[in-house]
Design goal:
Layout lengths: L19 H5 L1 H4 L9 H33 L5 H16 L9 H17 L2
Helix pairs in contact: 3-5, 4-5
Length: 120
């Protein structure tokens, strides 16, 4: 059997048939960095100014819905949990790829949907 050319002795392979050393040491071969580790910058980089503005408008609508619900004084335990999960997910996205990681993403968007639905 022939060994793929991407596997070299002494260099750890990351499983994608791409040599990990090539990814982690981008200055040597000119490959781009994988990501900024900030979900908001990732949205801006992938979707441009128009997409980032639309996403900011969505976040503003979410914040306004939460604010209206809080001002009305009708927040129960379920709503408080949903609001906490929203703030937790949005804060986590500042320092990591929170919008792309499964565990954070499912909770964040489920809680955001609950907040928007309850604000009607």
């Amino acid at each position: 059997p022939e060994v793929p050319s991407s596997i070299r002795p002494g260099v750890k392979n990351d499983g994608n048939f791409d040599v990990s050393a090539d990814v982690h040491f981008a200055r040597y071969n000119g490959k781009p960095v994988s990501g900024p580790h900030n979900s908001y910058l990732t949205v801006l980089a992938r979707m441009g100014l128009l997409g980032a503005a639309a996403f900011a408008a969505f976040l503003a609508a979410l914040g306004a819905a939460i604010w209206r619900r809080a001002r009305a004084g009708r927040i129960g335990l379920a709503e408080l949990l949903a609001i906490t999960l929203c703030f937790d997910g949005l804060f986590y996205a500042l320092f990591n790829t929170g919008f792309e990681s499964g565990y954070n993403c499912y909770l964040l968007w489920l809680a955001a949907g609950m907040c928007l639905e309850r604000a009607r």
